[in-house]
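Incident log, support desk, overnight shift.

02:14 A customer reports that sequence design results differ from what the structure should imply. Their input is reproduced verbatim below. On-call engineer (initials T.W.) acknowledged and began investigating.
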């Protein structure tokens, strides 16, 4: 059950409970008052009748009777023991208050006060209290629903903002408007403060990464030049290879820093998808089959001129596909296939290795983490860059594993205008 309905039900239950408690208290207070008044009236009448009986020897005109047949048995036994008393009865004759005392000649002198009217008034009062409780509940319940809905809406807003922050949107805030000073406002303020602190910390880390990569660039260029001047040999080749890896790592770090800072902007233009994919594969220097919807047997490579025209940034699209192909070769097994779906906007890169690790499928790529050992070695930056570049061009990059084995990366390009001329 939703929180607002729980609160509304609680308000309704509390209202009914209060109305019932008030009704019971009023009922008993009214009944006790009427009984007390009737008891006093009966006693007064009985005392007056006793005086008349003592002076005249009779009770005519006093309102009392001798040995009344309707006298309650308990009250009669009390009088027979020589005591005076009163008793309320609700017998067939209707509610009544009896008062009795012993007469000098051994008889029982009693007074009967009819209480039909007071008890009827109390019954009417009970009915009015019930109606008032129902009306109060009918009025309070909508107010409780409205109040609970406002509280629930604020909580849902806080939860949605927290989910956005968890998804990476550190600019998300619950509200910039003044809020009531209550517990929900404290939660909202705490979430906003947490997001601001997390954003500032992340920006500091991004600045540090960018500064380190930038400062390494100049000495690294000198190192690259020095490595090229080394005489041929096995050691020189190893040094050149390590320098090249280090240079690639620094460039990747700089690219990630720009992506994290939001400094990258896409230069969108209509372009044929097939040639862009072929160029991306060629850049890697690795083999990958490029397949299109016409390749029904999956064994023929696609024609370079085939495929739809898409509106995207070709340089960034090449970067994404190249990183996916390199990742497939480095961490998976051949054959590596790049497939264009029938819609002309979905590109799939698949290898036939052990597949992506569960941690990557659950949380997405994380820099400097390559997953399980079977996926090979690397810096874990290629997929991170691919995801960032896909976000820049408005595409969605999804990761999964094929049922029969192998990692599958699916790039879904957005729909866009393609009416501008294409310049080759």
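02:41 Re-run completed on a clean worker. Output:
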């Amino acid at each position: 059950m939703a929180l607002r309905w729980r609160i509304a039900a609680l308000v309704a239950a509390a209202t009914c409970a209060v109305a019932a408690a008030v009704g019971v208290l009023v009922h008993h207070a009214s009944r006790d008052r009427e009984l007390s008044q009737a008891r006093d009236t009966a006693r007064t009448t009985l005392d007056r009748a006793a005086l008349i009986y003592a002076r005249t020897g009779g009770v005519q005109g006093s309102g009392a009777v001798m040995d009344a047949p309707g006298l309650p048995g308990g009250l009669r036994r009390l009088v027979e023991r020589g005591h005076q008393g009163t008793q309320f009865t609700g017998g067939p004759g209707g509610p009544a208050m009896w008062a009795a005392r012993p007469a000098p000649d051994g008889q029982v002198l009693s007074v009967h006060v009819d209480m039909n009217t007071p008890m009827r008034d109390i019954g009417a009062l009970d009915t009015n209290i019930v109606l008032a409780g129902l009306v109060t509940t009918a009025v309070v319940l909508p107010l409780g629903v409205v109040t609970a809905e406002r509280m629930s809406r604020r909580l849902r807003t806080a939860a949605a903002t927290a989910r956005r922050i968890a998804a990476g949107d550190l600019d998300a805030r619950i509200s910039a408007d003044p809020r009531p000073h209550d517990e929900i406002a404290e939660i909202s303020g705490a979430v906003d403060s947490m997001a601001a602190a997390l954003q500032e910390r992340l920006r500091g880390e991004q600045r540090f990464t960018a500064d380190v990569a930038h400062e390494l660039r100049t000495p690294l260029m000198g190192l690259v030049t020095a490595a090229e001047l080394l005489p041929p040999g096995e050691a020189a080749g190893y040094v050149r290879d390590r320098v090249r890896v280090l240079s690639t790592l620094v460039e990747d770090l700089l690219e990630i820093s720009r992506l994290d800072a939001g400094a990258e902007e896409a230069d969108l233009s209509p372009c044929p998808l097939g040639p862009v994919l072929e160029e991306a594969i060629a850049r890697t220097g690795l083999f990958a089959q490029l397949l299109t919807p016409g390749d029904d047997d999956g064994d023929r490579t696609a024609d370079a001129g085939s495929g739809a025209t898409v509106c995207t940034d070709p340089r960034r699209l090449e970067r994404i596909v190249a990183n996916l192909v390199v990742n497939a070769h480095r961490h998976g097994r051949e054959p590596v296939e790049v497939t264009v779906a029938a819609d002309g906007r979905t590109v799939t890169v698949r290898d036939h290795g052990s597949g992506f690790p569960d941690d990557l499928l659950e949380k997405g790529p994380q820099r400097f983490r390559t997953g399980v050992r079977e996926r090979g070695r690397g810096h874990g930056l290629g997929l991170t860059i691919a995801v960032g570049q896909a976000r820049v061009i408005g595409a969605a990059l999804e990761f999964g594993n094929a049922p029969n084995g192998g990692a599958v990366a699916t790039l879904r390009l957005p729909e866009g205008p393609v009416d501008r001329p294409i310049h080759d």
